[in-house]
Amino acid sequence: MSFLNTIRLPFRECLPLSLDEVGRALARSTPTSAPGPDRTPNSVWKRVHRVAPHLILELLAPLVTYGSHPLTLNRADDIVLDKPGKPSYDSPSSFRVIVLL
User: Fold this and answer.
1) Can you give the pLDDT at residue 42?
2) Same domain, residue pair 62 and 100
3) Given CB 3.0 to 4.6 Å as the disulfide criterion, which of 20, 30, 66, 80 pairs with 8?
4) Do 59 and 90 lie in a common domain?
5) What is the pLDDT of residue 33?
């Protein structure tokens, strides 16, 4: 059965995204970098969030809830690096992931 023909069920342990969570993530991002293959800079996403924050939340929520991701991520090579100077490596924030699409 192909991926497109399967019905995706939501992850039970997935907590819903909040506007505050999206806002914090955008606040930490640099305005000149582009997070995805569409090459849209973070400054654009920050402006969208200021004007209509619910739009970004509505775009991201199904991706997180159902675990759907762009097909390009299925063909990505990634490397996980330790962030130097972290007191503990028990948290995902202690690592940096470099992804080559």
Assistant:
1) 87
2) no
3) 66
4) no
5) 81
14 token code pair = 């997935």
Residues 44, 61, single domain; the answer is yes
Q: Are 42 and 30 in contact (CB under 8 A)?
A: yes
pLDDT digits (tens, 9 = 90+) for 24-67: 888 888 888 876 667 888 899 899 999 999 998 888 888 888 87
pTM summary value: 0.55
Residue 20 and residue 34 share a domain: yes
Q: How many domains does the chain have?
A: 2
Look at residues 24, 31, 16 and name the one whose alpha carbon lies nearest to residue 53.
24
Report phi then psi at 29, rounded to 5. Answer: -85, 145
Q: Which structural domain range is residue 61 located in?
A: 12-68
User: In angstroms, how far is CA 2 from the centroid of its own chain?
Assistant: 25
Q: Are 43 and 34 in contact (CB under 8 A)?
A: no
Alpha carbon distance 90, 48 (integer Å): 34
